[in-house]
Amino acid sequence: MTIQFGVSLAPTSDVEHGFRLAAAAELAGLDLIGVQDHPYVSRYVDAFVFIGQLLARTHTISVFPDVTNLPLRPPAMLALTASSLARVSEGRFVLGLGAGGYWDAITSMGVPRRTPAEGLRALAEAVELMRELWETGREVTRDGEFASVSGLAGHGPAVPVWVGAQGPHSFRLTGRLADGWAAPIPSYLPYERWAPANATIDRAAQESGRSPASVTRVAQIVGTITDHPQRRPELVGAAPIRADVNGWVEVLERLATEQPFTTFVLWPETADERQIRRFGEEVAPMLRARLDR
After folding, report:
1. Other C-beta atoms within 10 Å of 105: how many?
2. Close Cβ partners of 227 (under 8 Å, ≥ 6 residues apart)
3. Across-strand partners of 152?
């Protein structure tokens, strides 16, 4: 079993702090950095500009938007941005993608509000259009409900797409179309709903003729790695995980053995280098050793 570990960062205007955290993540041996995409937050810089800088300043670690706000990023342009980032980083970019959530904030930037059903249709349409642009090597014409292109020359490389699905319909879309599921943090989708979500994704993948194992499962966990043992962490509700290294390993081991999660992204309650180092240098190797046994 190949296990990956990462950390989520917010693209705050203190970009030098963000660069230091990214450097710490790479030095600690982490595999991934997730970058939140909330363009309407005044204290944040653009996620994709920040991602480009992270890729330019690192050498081994991959980066993904966690997750891209699709209503604010037209899919044809997003396809070009994603393939360009993958090309200049030699494949270290993954496209996290979401249908949109904070609609009052999203519409404040001048785009129309979508219903949940419209958001899902737009998401499916975007994935299909981007894949066509990445993979055909020819001009693409598509008259879609939400995105249309006419004689647009597509090019690769193709980029893996991880969907930030939160409900039954989007879980089925993920199993049918996506390369991965970036499970929302528990405040959006409580822990006890993760297993049923995975089961829905598995069924949808099988019904579409795909192997469920082809859909990467990304567990995103908010919390703090403490210096001393705490009460045994329970995977219920939305409370942050606050535990020592052994407690964290126990939690992640359960997610890796009882569910199909293979990627674990820490959302540290306090974004500091020590939390990142402990996750990469202490939690990750201990969990890998346990799973190898």
Report:
1. 15
2. 244
3. 140
Q: Going by C-beta distance under 8 Å and a sequence separation of 6 or more, which residues neighbour residue 181?
A: 162, 163, 165, 171, 174, 197, 198, 201, 215, 216, 217, 218
Judge if pTM exceeds 0.85.
yes
My answer on whether omega of the bond before 67 falls inside 30° of 0, hence cis, is yes
**Tens digit of each residue's pLDDT, the chain (293 residues):** 799 999 999 999 999 999 999 999 999 999 999 999 999 999 999 999 999 999 999 999 999 999 999 999 999 999 999 999 999 999 999 999 999 989 999 999 999 999 999 999 999 999 999 999 998 778 999 999 999 999 999 889 999 999 999 999 999 999 999 999 999 999 999 999 999 999 999 999 999 999 999 999 999 999 999 998 888 888 999 999 999 999 999 999 999 999 999 999 999 999 899 999 999 999 999 999 999 98
* Secondary structure element (H or E) that encloses residue 195, with its range: helix 194-207
Question: 């829905």: which residue's tokens?
Answer: 200
Phi-psi bin for 223: left (phi > 0), alpha (psi -120 to 50), beta? left
| β-pair type (4-9, 241-243) | unpaired
> How many helices and strands in the chain, by DSSP H and E?
10, 12
Q: Give CA–CA dist 124/147, Å, rounded.
A: 11
Q: What is the largest CA-CA distance in the chain?
A: 61
User: Measuring CA to CA, which residue among 187, 160, 188, 185 is closest to residue 174?
Assistant: 160
Pairing of strands 4-9, 263-268: parallel
Task: Provide CB contacts within 8 A for 198, sequence distance 6+.
Answer: 181, 217, 259, 260, 261
266, 6 contact by CB (below 8 A): yes
Please give the domain boundaries of the chain with CATH numbers for all domains: 4-214 (3.20.20.30)
